[in-house]
Structures are given as structure tokens and as C-alpha cells.
Amino acid sequence: MATAHLKAFSASGYEILDDEIDKGRVTIWSRAAVTPRLGDLLLIESHGYAYDVEIVELTQLRGGWAAEAEVVDLY
Fold first, then answer.
1. Nearest C-alpha neighbor of 25 from the set 59, 71, 56
2. Which residue range(s) make up the domain with 18?
3. What is the distance between the alpha carbons of residues 9 and 13, in angstroms, rounded to a whole number?
4. pTM to 2 decimal places
5. Where residue 23 sits, what CATH number does that domain have?
6. Which residues make beta-bridge pairs with 14?
7. How many C-beta atoms lie closer than 10 Å to residue 28's C-beta?
8. Is residue 50 part of a domain?
9. 53 in any annotated domain
10. Could you tell me if residue 7 is inside a domain?
11. What was the pLDDT predicted at 14?
12. Can you tell me the mean pLDDT for 54-71?
């Protein structure tokens, strides 16, 4: 099985893929040393709205991590 390579937008930044936020899901990739935990809540701004999202899946990648999150609230 091949190891996925992370291509975040900066060496210490985060990339939030919100194409499916209207379906209640986002993907977050990062090279940051701090990895979220399952159940962590994060606040994401997208398309003029603020969303609380909960981490529901984590994947360790070479040089970082990826997380799947589900929308739990919209402001």
C-alpha cells in the first residue's frame, strides 16, 4: 500500500476542503505537529457562515495528517 504524500498550502498551515460542506462534511489536511483527536470540535468559516465541525476520522500521512469532520452546528 502506497503512503499518501501531504501537500498542504504551507509548511505549517492547514488546507480545508469544503466542497461538501453543504452535505455536512469537510476534510482538513495539515503538516502541523498538533494532531486533533476524534471528537474534537473546530470552528470553520466557509461561504460567509461559521460551522462547528467534529473530527470523526483521522489518517496519519507522511509529514502530517488528514481529518474528516462532520458539521454539528451552523452560525
1. 71
2. 14-74
3. 6
4. 0.79
5. 2.40.10
6. 30
7. 21
8. yes
9. yes
10. no
11. 84
12. 94
